[in-house]
Design a protein that fits this description.
The protein has 24 helices and 18 strands. The protein has three domains: 189 residues, no CATH class; 291 residues, no CATH class; 83 residues, no CATH class. Strands 1, 3, 4, 8, 15, 17 and 18 form a seven-stranded antiparallel beta sheet that branches. The protein has a four-stranded antiparallel beta sheet with strand order 11-6-2-16, with no helix packed on it. It has a three-stranded antiparallel beta sheet with strand order 7-10-9. It is 51% helix and 12% strand. By secondary structure, it is an alpha+beta fold. A hairpin with a 4-residue loop joins strand 3 and strand 4.
């Protein structure tokens, strides 16, 4: 900072047009760098963001004031400090996080030694590298659009660096860079469509760590926290008539172990899907659907109940468990799309008592004593002493329906004996409160029962053919075991809030100021805006982010290949690139040898004059030829001379037309022929 002249600090900021060429180019480049780095702020250490901002502002002030750049030793010291801070922040100078931090610092510091064109080129290519690093974190549509602007800006700065001394327009450079990028766009599109894919196209980033809200455990209130998130969990497109909202249960982790506070999944070692197929009884026609699942931190795949076959996902093994849950061999850190088939009308599980069912009766000792007393009292009641599980379940659902229970997203904190407190004191909660309390009481009544988590329902209107299931659709329900039938779904939420299940009417978290204002003015407008954006984002995900090897081979089938292979794809790519190269070479040859239309016009006029007996050299302009015509023909040649004067005005005046006047050429040739005929 001390290198800036004191008088420069007091000078008012000059207008853009009055700045020297170098200052304008530097300020534009600094603005492009700031725009390029901005999306990285959430990933960078705070010191890196602040240092970058200070350096860019400092360099801008130096450009405006035409002050000298700092000494190189200052830059060396700043670089050493940045390396030390990077090591302190990331405990390494290698890897993605440390590498991005150092790249941003290097690009910012390099702007302080922009003394020659080669220095600018280093900044340009560091900028292009920073653009690529954004896609290590997110490949969403907003990030792609922002980086497209960055590339355009960097190309414009590159064009400015090659322009000659003078005052070229920034708009002119921007148009040239845009035109150049558009010429290259078809080749990039061809490479995107045909370049062979070895694995998922975008497998590194997690799009801002976007992960599903489901968990392998559940406490009172945990699902309510997830349900306040309105982000998308998955999308569905059905083949044929969509099922009714009340049948849209997407099964996630099944929680059967309860320690008095938290519900957890069963321990590893559960049998695979083979026995489940024998214990799964389906009816009806079933439903085929396509599902796109957002990145997940779990290995549980929330398929529609009851999906019968493992979906095919590239590079992922999917296994069905005995409790109808589907699991992957690793968390899905990238978005996946697949086809599946489900029967919404089904029964599953053993129909006769099994030793494994005893695990679904276990309750921790010392918890919820009043609920246990209530269960004992029911067993003493003649109506329930020998009642079947379905009768007991219906009695509990009727109790919820008729005893003023409240369905709410904000029930508050529950104490140690949460089930006692829910049933007998507060009588309010979200879906997990009702499901957990139901299962505890059913177990206390000696009925095997468990909690199932997942999603229920979807947005009622399909957007672009896809039904959206949001995190706010996260749900917990119960299952109990009925002899002769197997596991039976019981959803206590349907007893207290039937519209939640039958019409997918979710409880909504409070909106923000802007969203609330829009909703107050026009409730439908906010939904239309969100639906339009999500449809656009879904197209980006389906056709760009999820473009896969299978789609490449399908493309080959559509253009006539019977049994496409990777060899066919490679040959098609090579042939297409070779054709484009030949077309480009032919255009370059033609462009090099084509003649300017004004030159062709002058050649015709000179030839006509020479046939009429007037010499016309190639270097002579129309004005000189007009003088020679007047000297040769006098008044008789005046019409011909006037045509040459008109051509002079068209070609060189401020109102120059884009193309030659062919009518003028025809009149000139005819007039010259007439003069030659008159001369005999």
């Amino acid at each position: 900072m001390a290198l800036i002249a004191p008088t420069a600090r007091l000078l008012p900021l000059p207008k853009w047009r009055t700045l020297p060429r170098d200052a304008r180019d530097t300020l534009f480049l600094l603005a492009v760098i700031g725009w390029t780095v901005l999306p990285h702020v959430s990933h960078l250490p705070l010191w890196c963001s602040l240092l970058t901002a200070v350096v860019l502002l400092w360099r801008a002030r130096l450009a405006v004031a035409n002050a000298p750049l700092p000494n190189r030793w200052w830059l060396v010291a700043a670089l050493a400090l940045a390396a030390a801070l990077t090591f302190w922040s990331h405990r390494t100078l290698l890897g993605k996080e440390a590498g991005v931090t150092l790249a941003v610092v290097l690009m910012a510091l390099k702007t302080l030694e922009l003394r020659a064109r080669r220095d600018a080129f280093v900044v340009f290519f560091l900028g292009f590298f920073i653009v690529l690093t954004h896609f290590l974190y997110s490949q969403s549509l907003p990030v792609a659009a922002a980086m497209l602007v960055s590339v355009w800006g960097l190309l414009t700065a590159l064009v400015l660096a090659h322009m000659p001394v003078g005052q070229p327009s920034l708009r002119q450079a921007a148009r040239l860079s845009a035109r150049t990028a558009l010429w290259g766009a078809p080749i990039m599109a061809l490479l995107f469509v045909l370049f062979p894919r070895i694995g998922p196209l975008w497998g590194v980033p997690q799009d801002g760590q976007s992960t599903t809200g489901l968990s392998n455990s559940m406490r009172m209130g945990s699902v309510a926290e997830v349900a306040q998130d309105d982000s998308i969990a998955l999308r569905l497109r059905f083949t044929g008539t969509p099922p009714s909202p009340g049948t849209l249960y997407f099964r996630g982790p099944v929680l059967s172990h309860f320690d008095g506070v938290e519900w957890r999944v069963a321990p590893p070692g559960v049998s695979d899907f083979g026995p489940v197929r024998r214990n799964l009884r389906t009816s009806g026609a079933g439903v085929a659907y396509e599902m796109t699942v957002e990145p997940s931190r779990l290995t549980s795949l929330p398929l529609l109940e009851a999906s019968v076959d493992a979906p095919k996902i590239d590079g992922v093994r999917v296994t069905g468990l005995a409790d109808l849950e589907w699991r992957t061999d690793r968390p899905l850190f990238e978005r996946v799309r697949f086809d599946a088939f489900a029967f919404t009308d089904f029964r599953h599980g053993p129909t006769t008592p099994q030793l494994a069912l005893q695990d679904q009766l276990v309750l921790p000792p010392g918890y919820n004593p009043r609920t246990l007393e209530w269960a004992a009292a029911m067993r003493r009641d003649p109506r329930y002493a020998n009642a079947e599980p379905r009768v007991l379940a219906q009695a509990l659902l009727d109790h919820i329906r008729t005893s003023n229970y409240t369905y709410t997203l904000a029930p508050g904190e529950y104490g140690r004996d949460a089930v006692d407190e829910f049933w007998l004191d507060r009588r309010e909660g979200f879906c997990e409160h009702f499901a957990a309390a139901f299962v505890v009481l059913m177990r206390a009544l000696d009925v095997p029962a468990r909690v199932v988590t997942g999603y229920q329902g979807a947005d009622p209107i399909a957007v672009d053919g896809y039904y959206v299931v949001r995190q706010s659709s996260a749900h917990a329900w119960a299952e109990y075991w009925q002899p002769g039938i197997g596991w039976v779904r019981a959803d206590p939420t349907a007893a207290v809030a039937p519209e939640r299940i039958n019409r997918s009417v979710r409880l909504l978290a409070p909106r923000g100021v802007v969203a609330g204002a829009i909703a107050n003015v026009s409730p439908q407008l906010l939904e239309r805006l969100r639906g339009g954006w999500e449809a656009l984002n879904n197209r980006w995900n389906q056709w760009v982010m999820n473009y896969s090897r299978g789609q490449q081979l399908d493309l080959l089938k559509n253009i006539g290949f019977d049994s496409p292979s990777w060899e066919d794809l490679t040959l098609l790519l090579i042939g297409a690139l070779s054709t484009l190269a030949l077309v480009g070479a032919a255009w370059a040859w033609w462009d090099r040898h084509r003649v300017d239309p004004w030159t062709r016009q002058m050649d015709r006029l000179r030839a006509a004059l020479q046939r009429a007996g007037v010499s016309a050299a190639a270097h002579e302009p129309p004005r000189a030829l007009a003088q020679r015509v007047r000297a040769r023909w006098g008044a008789a040649g005046e019409p011909l001379a006037e045509l040459l004067d008109a051509l002079e005005r068209q070609r060189y005046s401020r109102t120059t037309i884009a193309r030659p006047d062919h009518a003028l050429t025809r009149r000139f040739v005819a007039q010259a022929r007439a003069l030659r005929a008159a001369a005999g």
